[in-house]
Design goal:
D-Maltodextrin-Binding Protein, domain 2; alpha/beta; 22% strand; five-stranded mixed β-sheet; 12 helices; Arc Repressor Mutant, subunit A
Amino acid sequence: MQRMGRLDSIDDLRVFDAIVRAGSLSRAAQELDVSLTLVSKRLKRLEAQLGVRLLQRTTRQLGLTEEGQEFLGRCRLALDAIQAAEEVCGDGHSGIVRVTATAAFAQRQIAPRLHRFLALYPDISVQILTSDDVLDLVERRIDLAMRQAPLADSRLIARPLVPDARILCASPAYLAEAGTPRDPIDLTKHACLTVGDPPPAQWRLWRGEESVEVSIRSVAGGNDGEICHVGALADLGIAMKAAWDVVDDVRAGCLVRILPEWWGGTDRWVRIVYPARLHQPRRVRAFVAFMEDEMMQALAESADLGLFEASALAKLQPRLGTARRRPLPTHPAPEPG
């Protein structure tokens, strides 16, 4: 890239970054709450000062040129540094925290806790982007993700947030009519609710180091786990769900865990993931600490239900500090009744 002239405004960098994230000038204008004309003028001014074309624009799409790709990385480093410098002059507890998670995790575990976070930090707002896809946090300028997928990007840091092992559950009405399975093989006689297209023909269960694969009959399901959740509540059959997804229903008696010694996958986690930065924004650090504290307390309060593996809870025990209201129990799952 050739030597550039002096930039007139840091806002030009912010506009360029917003255009790339939004994928179009019009969407960037909406995101920034400014006119399309202003966005276009800012981009043209930036390109003129740099002496290069940053974006290749056609009637249907917008893409980065080679120079634009190189400049984008340096632009974002500069914006991060400016943000960190601005926070030094204030408490840093203001601005927007952009979070991505699956719809289920956002609805069950994030949204119900936002009122407490916003009460603590009234100058911070939270924007949640729900997606089952693994979004590029750096490219999309997302502050953090809560995801189950393995970490494959070296630019990211991941911390375990909550165990993600699956449990089997059904409604009391379904079990009263169809009976309660006492052994994994009993599942062959039951209606099962499954995730996948085509639906799986077997479920694999673990008990410690022992595992068993059981043939099942899928009566309903799809590519969204919420279908199974709602189906189980509607007395349709047995679902395999993450414990964090159904813990409130089990506590309320709307769902009952069955085969409590058996788990649908072990050592699985929902992790809190964020870009590795020299200066992590304070608002992001505040939200990470808040969610970790909230999830630790939620695990402590649900330990008596036996929905989470003792080995997984033990791994989280060292993270409990004096700020916790009480220590996290590591009770094993209850014996089957």
